[in-house]
Amino acid sequence: MARLALRRGGTRISLASVDLLALFAAQERNGFADLAGSDGQILIKVSEPLLNTIIADLVSQSTAIRELQVKPRAGNRLGVRVALAKPSFLPPLSVEVTIDKQPSLPDDPVLGLTLSGLGGLAKFAGGFLKSPPPGVRMEGNRVFVDMRAALAANGLTSILSYLKDVAVGTEEGRLIVVFNVGVRG
Fold this sequence. Notes:
The chain has helices at residues 20-29, 48-59, 121-128, 147-153, and strands spanning 2-8, 11-18, 39-47, 65-73, 77-84, 93-101, 110-116, 136-139, 142-146, 163-171, 174-182. By secondary structure, the protein is α+β, with helices and mostly antiparallel strands. The protein folds into two domains: 1-30, no CATH class; 36-182, no CATH class. The strands form three sheets. It has a six-stranded antiparallel beta sheet. A hairpin with a 3-residue loop joins strand 4 and strand 5 (77-84).
Protein backbone atom coordinates (compact mmCIF):
# COMPACT_ATOMS: atom_id res chain seq x y z
CA MET A 1 0.00 0.00 0.00
CA ALA A 2 1.42 3.39 -0.97
CA ARG A 3 1.21 6.55 1.11
CA LEU A 4 -0.19 9.53 -0.74
CA ALA A 5 1.10 12.87 0.48
CA LEU A 6 1.23 16.43 -0.81
CA ARG A 7 3.52 19.33 0.00
CA ARG A 8 2.21 22.84 0.42
CA GLY A 9 5.06 25.25 0.93
CA GLY A 10 7.33 23.54 3.45
CA THR A 11 4.49 21.61 5.09
CA ARG A 12 3.83 17.94 4.26
CA ILE A 13 0.14 17.08 4.13
CA SER A 14 -0.59 13.36 4.53
CA LEU A 15 -3.85 12.47 2.83
CA ALA A 16 -4.17 8.84 3.90
CA SER A 17 -2.99 5.37 3.08
CA VAL A 18 -4.23 4.61 -0.41
CA ASP A 19 -3.84 1.40 -2.37
CA LEU A 20 -2.96 3.15 -5.63
CA LEU A 21 -3.04 -0.03 -7.74
CA ALA A 22 -6.55 -0.92 -6.53
CA LEU A 23 -7.68 2.67 -7.10
CA PHE A 24 -6.23 2.67 -10.61
CA ALA A 25 -7.86 -0.71 -11.43
CA ALA A 26 -11.25 0.52 -10.22
CA GLN A 27 -10.95 3.69 -12.30
CA GLU A 28 -9.92 1.71 -15.37
CA ARG A 29 -12.96 -0.57 -15.02
CA ASN A 30 -15.15 2.56 -15.11
CA GLY A 31 -13.37 4.13 -18.08
CA PHE A 32 -11.65 6.68 -15.81
CA ALA A 33 -14.95 8.57 -15.56
CA ASP A 34 -13.75 10.37 -12.43
CA LEU A 35 -10.84 11.77 -14.47
CA ALA A 36 -12.87 12.85 -17.53
CA GLY A 37 -11.30 15.77 -19.36
CA SER A 38 -7.84 15.09 -17.96
CA ASP A 39 -4.74 15.31 -20.15
CA GLY A 40 -1.13 14.61 -19.40
CA GLN A 41 2.26 13.62 -20.66
CA ILE A 42 4.41 10.84 -19.29
CA LEU A 43 8.10 10.70 -20.12
CA ILE A 44 9.76 7.43 -19.18
CA LYS A 45 13.51 6.93 -19.44
CA VAL A 46 14.26 3.22 -19.16
CA SER A 47 17.87 2.38 -18.26
CA GLU A 48 19.74 -0.25 -20.23
CA PRO A 49 19.76 -2.74 -17.30
CA LEU A 50 16.00 -2.41 -16.74
CA LEU A 51 15.30 -2.63 -20.48
CA ASN A 52 17.33 -5.84 -20.73
CA THR A 53 15.61 -7.31 -17.66
CA ILE A 54 12.23 -6.73 -19.32
CA ILE A 55 13.49 -8.17 -22.62
CA ALA A 56 14.97 -11.24 -20.89
CA ASP A 57 11.58 -11.97 -19.35
CA LEU A 58 9.84 -11.65 -22.72
CA VAL A 59 12.48 -13.74 -24.54
CA SER A 60 12.35 -16.49 -21.92
CA GLN A 61 9.10 -17.65 -23.57
CA SER A 62 10.58 -17.69 -27.08
CA THR A 63 11.58 -20.88 -28.81
CA ALA A 64 13.41 -18.98 -31.56
CA ILE A 65 15.59 -16.61 -29.51
CA ARG A 66 17.98 -17.80 -26.83
CA GLU A 67 19.21 -14.34 -25.76
CA LEU A 68 18.58 -10.73 -26.73
CA GLN A 69 20.53 -7.73 -25.42
CA VAL A 70 19.80 -4.11 -26.35
CA LYS A 71 22.15 -1.16 -25.89
CA PRO A 72 20.44 2.23 -26.37
CA ARG A 73 22.64 4.79 -28.13
CA ALA A 74 22.19 8.48 -28.81
CA GLY A 75 20.20 9.58 -31.86
CA ASN A 76 17.37 7.01 -31.94
CA ARG A 77 19.79 4.13 -32.41
CA LEU A 78 20.12 0.81 -30.63
CA GLY A 79 22.80 -1.85 -30.66
CA VAL A 80 21.17 -5.28 -30.60
CA ARG A 81 22.86 -8.61 -29.95
CA VAL A 82 20.72 -11.68 -30.57
CA ALA A 83 21.52 -15.36 -30.08
CA LEU A 84 19.14 -17.65 -31.90
CA ALA A 85 18.10 -20.93 -30.32
CA LYS A 86 18.56 -22.81 -33.60
CA PRO A 87 20.89 -23.53 -35.18
CA SER A 88 22.88 -23.68 -31.98
CA PHE A 89 26.21 -23.42 -33.85
CA LEU A 90 25.34 -19.92 -35.08
CA PRO A 91 27.22 -17.30 -33.04
CA PRO A 92 25.30 -14.30 -31.64
CA LEU A 93 24.49 -11.72 -34.29
CA SER A 94 24.99 -7.99 -33.79
CA VAL A 95 22.87 -5.44 -35.59
CA GLU A 96 22.38 -1.69 -35.46
CA VAL A 97 18.77 -0.56 -35.26
CA THR A 98 17.53 2.91 -36.14
CA ILE A 99 14.09 4.13 -35.11
CA ASP A 100 12.87 5.75 -38.33
CA LYS A 101 9.07 5.84 -38.07
CA GLN A 102 6.98 6.89 -35.10
CA PRO A 103 3.46 5.61 -34.49
CA SER A 104 0.67 7.97 -35.49
CA LEU A 105 -2.35 7.38 -33.28
CA PRO A 106 -5.03 6.28 -33.75
CA ASP A 107 -4.80 5.45 -37.47
CA ASP A 108 -1.26 4.08 -37.82
CA PRO A 109 0.05 2.69 -34.50
CA VAL A 110 3.19 1.26 -36.10
CA LEU A 111 6.78 1.88 -35.00
CA GLY A 112 9.29 1.44 -37.82
CA LEU A 113 12.87 0.26 -37.42
CA THR A 114 15.69 -0.19 -39.92
CA LEU A 115 18.33 -2.86 -39.36
CA SER A 116 21.90 -2.45 -40.53
CA GLY A 117 25.19 -4.17 -39.88
CA LEU A 118 24.04 -7.64 -40.83
CA GLY A 119 24.42 -7.48 -44.56
CA GLY A 120 23.16 -10.74 -46.04
CA LEU A 121 22.75 -12.27 -42.59
CA ALA A 122 19.41 -10.48 -42.09
CA LYS A 123 17.62 -12.84 -44.48
CA PHE A 124 19.51 -15.83 -43.09
CA ALA A 125 18.54 -14.96 -39.50
CA GLY A 126 15.02 -14.01 -40.56
CA GLY A 127 14.52 -17.53 -41.85
CA PHE A 128 14.89 -18.82 -38.30
CA LEU A 129 12.45 -16.25 -36.90
CA LYS A 130 9.43 -17.64 -38.71
CA SER A 131 7.06 -16.73 -35.89
CA PRO A 132 7.92 -13.27 -34.54
CA PRO A 133 6.06 -11.96 -31.49
CA PRO A 134 2.49 -10.70 -32.06
CA GLY A 135 2.46 -7.33 -33.79
CA VAL A 136 6.00 -7.66 -35.18
CA ARG A 137 6.73 -8.22 -38.85
CA MET A 138 9.92 -8.15 -40.89
CA GLU A 139 10.29 -6.96 -44.48
CA GLY A 140 13.89 -7.18 -45.65
CA ASN A 141 15.95 -4.95 -43.36
CA ARG A 142 12.82 -3.30 -41.89
CA VAL A 143 10.97 -4.27 -38.73
CA PHE A 144 7.47 -2.97 -38.00
CA VAL A 145 5.93 -3.10 -34.53
CA ASP A 146 2.16 -2.68 -34.59
CA MET A 147 1.21 -1.45 -31.12
CA ARG A 148 -2.46 -2.35 -31.59
CA ALA A 149 -1.68 -5.97 -32.48
CA ALA A 150 0.94 -6.31 -29.73
CA LEU A 151 -1.46 -4.93 -27.11
CA ALA A 152 -4.32 -7.09 -28.41
CA ALA A 153 -2.22 -10.23 -27.96
CA ASN A 154 -2.04 -9.36 -24.26
CA GLY A 155 -5.65 -8.18 -23.87
CA LEU A 156 -4.57 -4.55 -23.47
CA THR A 157 -6.12 -2.75 -26.46
CA SER A 158 -8.15 -0.54 -24.09
CA ILE A 159 -4.91 1.37 -23.43
CA LEU A 160 -5.18 2.87 -26.92
CA SER A 161 -8.41 4.61 -25.87
CA TYR A 162 -6.33 6.84 -23.57
CA LEU A 163 -3.24 7.35 -25.73
CA LYS A 164 -3.26 10.48 -27.87
CA ASP A 165 0.32 10.08 -29.05
CA VAL A 166 3.43 8.05 -28.32
CA ALA A 167 7.04 8.60 -29.34
CA VAL A 168 10.02 6.30 -28.87
CA GLY A 169 13.60 7.54 -28.88
CA THR A 170 16.97 6.95 -27.30
CA GLU A 171 19.84 8.63 -25.58
CA GLU A 172 23.09 6.99 -24.52
CA GLY A 173 22.14 4.15 -22.16
CA ARG A 174 18.39 4.83 -22.09
CA LEU A 175 15.28 4.09 -24.10
CA ILE A 176 12.89 7.05 -23.95
CA VAL A 177 9.14 6.69 -24.35
CA VAL A 178 6.82 9.70 -24.28
CA PHE A 179 3.09 9.13 -23.87
CA ASN A 180 0.49 11.87 -24.36
CA VAL A 181 -2.61 10.65 -22.59
CA GLY A 182 -6.13 11.89 -22.12
CA VAL A 183 -9.51 10.87 -20.82
CA ARG A 184 -12.46 11.94 -22.92
CA GLY A 185 -15.30 13.68 -21.24
